[in-house]
């Protein structure tokens, strides 16, 4: 006995219910034509993940329900195919909740089995993540809490078993697989295999971590698992795909490509002479040490996908950015070209009195290699005009960072003017180290709608640039970044002979301190005990604290590390704590 499954590893758009339904119908036509028996979509595919406060709008939930019903009716066209669809389901606000509070979340996070014109079964998520970037208890009711409220002893068994092709499958939704109980409940209810539908944001190393978690669930239950994941960028989050199949032994037997939309077939087969099931896959087991699973290609693919989806899903046709001759703007330019193509990218160089000739030379060489539209607009005259206009007010005061910031703000005004006039999205070029330290100008180089490097430390940016230059033509333009851009000392070029290290610790030290502070929440004393100079630690901790007001006004950018500024960094601006 064999069950043919097809995983719809696709890229939904949050709130585009009609568009997501159309993708689902197209995928069902294809899966049916290929003879599959079960088509599995990702968590909340119908509305996109994460729809956030859209869940509070009753009409939004009604529209999702209507689209689900359309899919049910359309399923009559695929008589041999059943569909597992992730969707929100409106909670009846009259339900009494006795366990935690009187708050009634607006929706269930559900997955439903559809086939032959009927909604055959539904499962509601039990484990609701409420940490990091997740706020699921804000939006969703837990089926465990609800079921327990309706029983006399407060215990609940909410397992859902479906039968497809003569095989009994237990359903789980994302976080349900990260804790033991839901999978064990499905086993106790008679499941022969587990199907997990997911929307799990990418961070570096997450695919390997998922495989470890699923291996643990498989070994605890003795059941094989298929994990269906989504792909795509959504504001600050990136979803990487990497759907997978795991045997009952915990062995990872197949891994779908990462950062790609596709229909991925796997087969679940009965083991002769037993009740056991195992996966039959054409894809070999992944080698986590292989180049495609190493850090830099995963990071690059995540940044490219996030940039492409942010631009296209928000209706922009092209992008522009300020090119400085430095590493960060060069990296953003290369990412933009890989994401959108050279014909949709415009680079603008805006030299000031302090711009080095090699910065101009290197910028011209890079745009020549990439073939993008390129303009040079001097800010010298505008800079002098601003200084003359302010000369009476500034009389008797030496030039300082005020004049440096004026140059950045003139550039920001010009870039925003080009964005307004021609309709392109302005990309910001700041990296995570600079964002952390406030080493950027509010309403200057912080102007823009999306920051591809927002979660990339400067020390990693150097490595990422070297890696991209080493790739062959299958990745795009070969050797896009002139070597001197990578190797010369970084400088904002806002005064004579300026370098970043005039103001900041060496980037290797800075980034190491930031990782300990941001990801491990270590105190200044603990970081000093780890071997870092006390004066540098105090400087970094102070700058990180006092620049929160800037970060609140910064453009969004893709999360690739354990903690990104934005969704999972939530510090008060007004903050008297010094620990």
UniProtKB/TrEMBL annotation:
Protein's UniProt keywords contain Nucleotide-binding: yes
GO CC annotation, single: cytoplasm
GO terms, biological process: NAD+ biosynthetic process
Name of the gene: nadE
Domain of life the protein comes from: Bacteria
Binding site for ATP: 322-329, 429
Pathway the protein takes part in: Cofactor biosynthesis; NAD(+) biosynthesis; NAD(+) from deamido-NAD(+) (L-Gln route): step 1/1
Residue numbers binding L-glutamine: 131, 200, 206
Catalytic activity: deamido-NAD(+) + L-glutamine + ATP + H2O = L-glutamate + AMP + diphosphate + NAD(+) + H(+)
GO molecular-function terms, A-Z: ATP binding; glutaminase activity; NAD+ synthase (glutamine-hydrolyzing) activity; NAD+ synthase activity
Record-stated family: Belongs to the NAD synthetase family.
Record function comment: Catalyzes the ATP-dependent amidation of deamido-NAD to form NAD. Uses L-glutamine as a nitrogen source.
UniProt keyword terms in alphabetical order: ATP-binding, Ligase, NAD, Nucleotide-binding
Lineage, highest ranks first: Bacteria, Pseudomonadati, Pseudomonadota, Betaproteobacteria, Burkholderiales
Organism: Lampropedia aestuarii
Binding site for deamido-NAD(+): 405, 434, 550
HAMAP family tied to this protein: NadE_glutamine_dep
Protein name: Glutamine-dependent NAD(+) synthetase
E.C. numbers: 6.3.5.1
Residue ranges of every copy of the CN hydrolase domain listed in the record: 3-270
